[in-house]
Amino acid sequence: MLPTGRIERAPAALIDEAVLARRFDWEMRCLLRHYTWIELAHLGEYARMDLIDAPTAARIRRIVLDLTPDDVAAERTAAMSDPLFALERSVHARLPANAAPAWHVDRSRNDVQACAQLMLGRERLLATAESVRTLARTTAGVAAEHTRSLMPGYTQHQTAHPITFGFYLAALAEAVTGAAESLHALIGAVNLSPLGAGAMAGLELPWDRDRLALALGFAAPQPHALTSVASRAWVLRSAAELAVLGTTLSRFLTDLIWWSGASCRFIDLPDELAGISSAMPHKRNFPVLERARGLTGHLTGLAVDLMIGQRNTGYTNLVEVSKESTRFLEDLFTTCDTMLGLVDLVISGVRFRAGRASRVARAELSTASTVANRLTLDHAIPARTAQVIVGTWIAAATRRLGDDTELTPDRLTAQDLAAACARAGYELDVDADRLRADLDADLDAGASLDRRVTSGSTRPDRVDALLAGVAARLRSADATAAAQSERLRTAWLRTTGTEDDGPAATRTDPDGPAATRTDPGGPSATRSKKGGHS
């Protein structure tokens, strides 16, 4: 018997095979444990409302917990390829006739499906946040080793000021730490239970939505019944967070690609992260950087796809929104997982070529601003005029040397600077030794880094302080993650009484079914160590 009197025939073969059956299989892998959890929460409410007696409730509870995916899948055809109908039929088949007539009364699939998807989504967000925190720690650790590793800094792709590799990596660590904090804040913000909203307008029985939310690890019920079943804003917000993270990482990866190339050669990667050319035996390529950066683009594309899937749809429960629009949400998470793993490999394996980077930094005119500052602070030359004087001093030296000779700090003289000042109307003696120290970007000779005294600067002790701040923020994020995971674990134990197949907050077996890319829609149950496509 079909689970409806309104339709007399089962779904058409094409709909069943190409759409419903694939979705059914995915939900068996990824949502059945959440449906089980929800069933037990509902069962507790039926018992509280005296609609099911205690012995019958206990019997149903045992049946629900003992059901296997194969048990439920056996009912697929009779249940019109709907997992919730199949679960209902599986339980009824194991109960005496009319043993629990009130079981499933005043229920809708709409809020149950919305609830199960959100329960799965928060687990995926927790797992992603864990990977982001791991990358932040890796980066901070490598940064701490290079707080005195000199290199040129750049703006507009031109040499700017001397910095250190540790200073640069500290920026990456801070950005990734911020992403982790945002993900945990998002988990807290969306952790509101849709259950009890019914189809879209609420239910007729006095369901205690606060108790249902507590049983499922939610902070509270979603206040509005229509929002409970209509909104998939958590999907869009998740996609936005990951797209922003990917965009940020793409910029850092662009620098690493440049710095690993022949024009800079500031960094190197181990053989296991390198590639070769089939025609140029001298080459040692780093396609892992391009792979990682390419994956960041997919995050943006998938976020746009998820947004378009909801745009211009009615604000109510719709299959188009609840199932079809989330078709590639699993790809979003697995792609992000792969990207984060690759970036972590790169950062943990990077070798900074300190000698070469230092030589390049010392050969550039990146401390010229110090000379201009000195003219103002020591000789009272107006700041803008001092900038013009230093600029003309450099331009004159460039013309004198010609296009074929590189202008390096040692080719600039105190005599020429004094002449430039005189042309601007300022007569002064320039201390040649002090000028040489000001122009030298070397850590010991010119102490160029130590002159950057403001907080957050490239000065080594300021970088150490920044990294200490990152470490403190990561400890706080760890505590938040532990509390969020513990809320789910405790709710699972309280509602099911078993730890088996409890809510996962970490990645699992990469060869499991959740690692595939052919899921028909919705978020996957777990994230694989190998990640998604590359």
From TrEMBL:
Keyword Amino-acid biosynthesis assigned: yes
Pathway noted in the entry = Amino-acid biosynthesis; L-arginine biosynthesis; L-arginine from L-ornithine and carbamoyl phosphate: step 3/3
* Enzyme class per UniProt: lyase
InterPro entries in UniProt: Argininosuccinate_lyase, Fumarase/histidase_N, Fumarate_lyase_fam, Fumarate_lyase_N, L-Aspartase-like
Q: What is its EC number?
A: 4.3.2.1
Coiled-coil segments on the chain, per record: none
Q: Which UniProt keywords apply?
A: Amino-acid biosynthesis, Arginine biosynthesis, Lyase
Q: Where is this region: Disordered?
A: 488-534
- Record bears the keyword Lyase: yes
Looking up SUPFAM superfamilies in the UniProt record yields:
L-aspartase-like
Q: Name all Fumarate lyase N-terminal domain ranges.
A: 103-297
Q: What is this protein called?
A: argininosuccinate lyase
Source organism: Nonomuraea rosea
Q: Top-down, what is the taxonomic lineage of the species of origin? A: Bacteria, Bacillati, Actinomycetota, Actinomycetes, Streptosporangiales
